[in-house]
Amino acid sequence: MNAALRLGLVAVSTYGLGCALLYFLQDRLLYLPTPEMAHPGVPALRLERGAAALKVWELHGAAQPALLYFGGNAEDVGANIPDFDAAFPDRAVYLLNYRGYGGSTGRPSEAALIADAAAVFDLVSERHALIAVMGRSLGSGVAVALATVRPVERLILITPFDSIAAVAADHFRWVPARALVRDRYDSAARIGRVSAPTLVMVAEHDEVVFRARSDSLIAAIAPALRHTVLVPGATHNDVQLSPLYYPAVRAFLYRAP
Which fold has domain 31-253? Predict the structure, then answer.
């Protein structure tokens, strides 16, 4: 075997190993569970889901209507409690800890998170006739899927994507990422079945979900339902710090139909 052939075989083997590692380790890249944190004085609901138990933070439970929040892939949703408490004093707020996150048990997956979201929605609907849904980053994929199967009042998507497969392809250009991704969260394929008014907030300098990914999703939303806000100067992880963030969400929630 000549040197060129040996080099080629080594290159092919190395490439194949890299693809295999990404495939088998992709859950560790997509899901980054957060530890359980204490928030004294804030009640939490417990929802049993087979072998898993979900922890859901609750604010202003007696208020009407409600807002259900799904966070990012490495987000401690409890960290939002002070800001949500201040921004939505007249609305009940429920913040879901995904499986494996913040005191919830079980292992996260696309199917499990979407099914859990529907179960939490059903629980909240026993107390609230109107429920708006808000999802950030990974949570936008959960929120879109939920809005296709439940009567969501309004849908708010923060730094959203068209699909996780497309996001992966942007960041791993040297492998066939679209073919390797299992949990695809294909929001662009689902959004056409959403009938709720939808707000999309895009961070101007999003370095995780590139602008093309958000624009692709926006283009798939029915024009009559579509509302967009560009947050100047914001990145993927600090968009919530913009002075426009919570006022824009409130303005959309209370916009006349």
Answer: Rossmann fold (3.40.50)
